Amino acid sequence: MEVVIVGSPEEGARIVADMVEETVREAGERGATLGLATGSSPVLAYRELIRRHREEGLSFAASRAFMLDEYVGLGPDFPQSYHRFIRENLVDHVDLADDRVLGPRGDAPDPVAEAARYDASIREAGGVDLQILGVGTDGHIAFNEPTSSLASRTRLKTLTRQTVADNARFFDSPADVPVHVLTQGVGTILEARRLVLTATGEAKAEAIAQTVEGPLSARWTATALQMHPAATIVVDEAAASRL
Ligand code: GLP
Question: Which residues form the active site (predicted)?
């Protein structure tokens, strides 16, 4: 695992954007398959990609993308849905076609079947070239809460109280946060050819220490990155403070 400690969140965002740009350029006309994460951690990197699209002509026209997760019950146009988050923070501002950005459907009538369908669709598309990740304060990646199998596939999960509390800032009240989600599994995520996890701030310091130095454990699902041959962690000094 490569750990990059940066002086500012903006510097970290440029490094993540560099990796995305390299992936897009390497893929050429074949088109890159990007793995997009929600949450506040990747937002600055998305802003940097939007800037490069506008000012430097970086094109995503040939690319496609898969999202990590979605709240059960929220359709793609619901304000707090992850589909909408990705549109507002990236897709609407670049030349990546909306119908080439796929995620699990939170409004699917049968969430269990939807999880299996979505998992298969990632494989059928040839897998993800570069997966962007954040990390929860309890060390989860996507919505793979503590004790998730490190071999898990895309499935229905229940959020912990901690994650509901952490994500309540995006909703009017904590009671509005859905407790069920569809999430790519840890095993699904590990199939991406390259992973980049980004985190900033003291609140992520313990999760980053466990991810980098802790024993491999389903208690902190981000530790699964230790098993990946091409994983990079980009953190600021506060997030790196317990390393
Ligand atoms: C949610 C998402 C994760 C994300 C995490 C951290 O739980 N499912 O993919 O990594 O939040 O979010 P933030 O980057 O806002 O701290």
Answer: 69, 138, 140, 145
What fold does the segment set 2-235 form as a domain? Rossmann fold (3.40.50)
Residue among 16, 70, 158, 167 to mutate when testing ligand 1 (max atoms within 8 A of CB): 167
Task: Find, among 42, 32, 92, the residue nearest to 65 by Cα.
Answer: 32
123: Cβ–Cβ under 8 A, 6 or more apart, which residues? 191
pTM: 0.97
User: Are residues 140 and 146 in contact, defined by beta-carbon separation less than 8 angstroms?
Assistant: yes
Cα–Cα distance measured from residue 190 to residue 131, given in angstroms and rounded to the nearest whole number? 9
Residue (of 43, 17, 114, 41) closest to 72 by Cα position = 114
Rounded Cα–Cα distance for residues 223 and 148 (Å): 12
Place of tokens 């990059």: 4
Annotated domain spans of the chain: 2-235
CA 46, chain centre distance (Å): 12
Residues 6+ apart with CB under 8 A from 28: 62
pLDDT tens digits, 54-113: 999 999 999 999 999 999 999 999 999 999 999 999 999 999 999 999 999 999 999 999
